[in-house]
Known about the structure:
Layout: H1 22-27, E1 33-38, H2 44-50, E2 62-67, H3 71-74, H4 79-87, E3 93-95, E4 100-103, E5 109-114, E6 131-134, H5 142-149, E7 161-166, H6 174-177, E8 197-202, E9 205-209, H7 212-218, H8 220-225, E10 231-238, H9 250-257, H10 261-267, E11 288-290, E12 299-307, E13 323-331, E14 336-344, H11 348-362, E15 367-372, H12 375-388, E16 394-398, H13 403-415, E17 419-422, H14 427-435, H15 447-465
Helix pairs in contact: 2-4, 13-15
Amino acid sequence: MIQTLQDRPKQEVRILRPYKGQQERFLSSSADITIGGGAAGGGKSHLLLMNPLRHVHRRGFECATFRRQSTQITAGGGLWDMSVDMYTPFNARSKETPRHTWTFPSGAKLTFDHLQYEKSVKAWDGSQLALIQFDELQHFTETQFFYMLSRNRTTCGIRPYMSASCNPDPDSFLVNLLAYWIDDEGFPIAERCGKLRYFVRRDGEILWFNNPEEVKESYPADYEKGILQPKSLTFIKFMLDDNEALRDDPDYNASLDALFDYERKRLKLGNWFARPSAGELFKTTYWKMLEQAPKADYYKRLVRYWDRASTMPSDSNTDPDYTVGCLVGLTKDDRVVILDVRRGRYEPHDVEELIKATARQDGPEVELWQEQDPGSAGKLEKEYYTKQLMGYNLHWNNKRKSKLTYWRPLASQLKSGNVYLVRGAWNRSFIDELGGCTDGTQNGHDDQADAASGGFMTFFKLLYNEGTGEVMQNLRYGE
């Protein structure tokens, strides 16, 4: 039987295209480096997945798209899940080890990987990547970004280029890199959006120019020798209105409006300088009091988290940090209870004795957590404490880097009404100190905030390691 065109079953036709406006502008950029950033919900990650599809017909084309951590690639609804939906119709084959990779019929490869550590970039030595992409570039370091630029080369027939998405972060290296496109109040400058600028690095410093001719005029000898070859960079502002799929979604808009004020300014208004103010994270009125602590069998977990210091007041340091041990419990109905705080300034030996004495009083059902400093000194200290606390349920956590990132999950639960304090003499000092915390740059101490937030964060680690596969109903933590 001969099947005519009219007899053939109709197949669904899917069209992949950017929305008109900033999304089209991003994909049509001629810059060597194009960075799209601003508010959340602008469709930036979707654009990064669409970007390499223009070149997958080329044999030898390779693209690598990076997130800072591997779990951010494979999380539900993340880059990998989105890529399955987008790339499968192109008859691409996928594999998930050693890296998550798509291979297209032409031989073109699109790879997803993480750069969790500074040294992770070394795994790409010798690579030739026609397109390098960073999703959430604000989470990467300047060293990682510029090192990967050296891997941006190809012989597949296109000009190598880099693309990145980002959200505002006042502590990111991007604040300086994108200074030309950001005004004095932290908002993107509309008329400079998409404008190309050129840079070279000389003696470790980035020098900016309006066009390549200015580089040649400033450094003619080095330019002719190829020592100074400028790279072009541009910034494209993205706002929620640029994503037709989300801009009229009342639930998404309501979620952005429910953020802390500084987060709303960053993620809805695209402000690069917004920081929390004192009293915004841990408002005094948010705390709920319990007259007595629930019994031990009412908890899923009990954790004593220590933020250690070992300096006494002196003429040269009249107000040193405190050693703080915070006892935090997660109840069976997924509430967070802060039961007790031990706080003081001690010599190193006395800190050790305090931790041991407190562990004896807490009992074996309480998990003991400490932070490990980086480097060899931290390893030696870990070995020493592990021996001294033999028999106790001791765990170690890497030293935190961003205080605000560490504090925010507990602050979110406090704002939601899920955190309780057991009444005690330590309450006033605790509430006052956390009430003054902003992002770690504030005056005053934040040791109790570190210890309480550290205890809370261990619940996520413990539940994940036990393979529960889901976060408790009342505990929500996102970037």
